[in-house]
Specification:
alpha+beta; 8-stranded antiparallel β-sheet; 11 helices
């Protein structure tokens, strides 16, 4: 197996958390945790890969409490598998990361993978606890197994988004919500950037409560997804700002969002996640003129297709920007997260505290941000 141009000496697939812990305790070289491998392009390039550990066989739903709206899953459980298990009780986990339903929950949490379903938060907002395997092989727990708990430090929030560089996720405890009674998506195409920005501003200042609001360019399409009780969705559809809206429901709606997911997958080869205020989305688009973009228009995140490393450096002079995906050669040239000095120093201390020898996914996160 080759990851970031590195060939791993061995690939192991534990069948239990205890076996995972034993493998980690025995291995002395660098360790690369893997799941469905939908996010291996994310993060700084690996610096070594002595042993890859595939956790996709850890795919049990260990406990599900519908009355408490909580579920506990091993890292190899896919998002699709999880959502299927929740259908019988009319519940769901409101996530739709761009890497799709085949992504594992461990991978989604490790990368804090995100998608257009942003009004209800990212996976970090739905995790209430974790079980992890530390670099020593010790199994430890963070958070709790119920929605209301007092357990000190929220270490599970620290592990979320750390790309397996602090510990290997062995179980995730999640809170859930009741499935929307109805969803519908309205799409319109604005004549230009100015008109699109004005339309989005009207939505932002209205009484509408979209669960997704995407500005897709260069066509200047506005996608508004509504989810709630059927009567609430109907009221919101009637109160959309004046435009030539096309409404999608049921299978047509699902197909429309799948088309947008496919479009995201095709964007690139260099894609940047630019983070600004919601009011700055138009400025980001007009100032940097990406060839294509998908903007989470109500929270200020713009997924922008960029051309060169110089483009990224220029954007980072003004905005926080994370490299979403990029060819290996460019990832070797530019840091993924663009940390400032204070952030880098703090996160280096954190990495050293959890993984003193730098063996877990070496180089993937903070230890790959700068030349050592």
């Amino acid at each position: 197996m080759t990851i970031d141009g590195l060939s791993t000496a061995k690939l192991l697939q534990p069948r239990s958390v205890e076996e995972l812990a034993e493998i980690v305790s025995i291995e002395k070289g660098s360790i690369v945790p893997l799941g469905a491998r939908t996010q291996t392009h994310f993060g700084n390039p690996l610096r070594s890969a002595d042993c890859a550990i595939d956790v996709s066989a850890l795919r049990r739903i260990t406990e599900y409490n519908p009355a408490d709206l909580t579920i506990h899953v091993e890292p190899g459980v896919t998002l699709g598998q999880l959502q299927e298990a929740l259908l019988a009780n009319n519940q769901f986990l409101p996530l739709d990361p761009w890497n799709g339903p085949d992504a594992t929950m461990g991978g989604i949490a490790a990368a804090n993978a995100q998608g257009p379903f942003r009004a209800v938060g990212t996976i970090r907002d739905w995790i209430i606890g974790m079980k992890v395997v530390e670099v020593t092989g010790r199994i430890s727990k963070a958070g709790g197994r119920v929605v209301k708990n007092v357990t000190g430090y929220d270490l599970h929030k620290l592990y979320t988004g750390s790309i397996g560089t602090l510990a290997i996720i062995a179980e995730i405890s999640l809170k859930l919500r009741a499935k929307f009674g109805c969803t519908a998506t309205s799409i319109t195409q604005a004549s230009d950037v100015s008109t699109a920005a004005q339309l989005i501003a009207s939505i932002r200042h209205s009484r509408l409560e979209p669960v997704s609001c995407e500005w897709v360019g260069p066509e200047n399409e506005i996608w508004v997804r509504l989810g709630e009780h059927p009567s609430a969705v109907e009221w919101q559809l009637k109160n959309l700002p004046s435009a030539d809206w096309t409404i999608f429901e049921g299978n047509e709606e699902s197909a429309a969002w799948e088309r947008l997911r496919s479009r995201y997958q095709r964007m690139g080869p260099a894609l940047l996640r630019v983070v600004g205020l919601p009011t700055a989305v138009r400025e980001i688009i007009e100032e940097y003129q990406p060839a294509e973009w998908i903007a989470h228009a109500l929270n200020g995140i713009v997924l922008a297709q960029v051309r060169t490393a110089a483009d990224i450096r220029r954007i980072r002079e003004k905005y926080r920007a994370v490299i979403e995906k990029m060819p290996l050669e460019m990832r070797r040239e530019l840091p993924t997260f663009g940390l400032n000095d204070a952030e880098y120093a703090l996160m280096r201390k954190m990495k050293h505290a959890f993984d003193p020898e730098g063996r877990l996914n070496p180089g993937r996160h903070v230890d790959g941000e700068r030349n050592q």
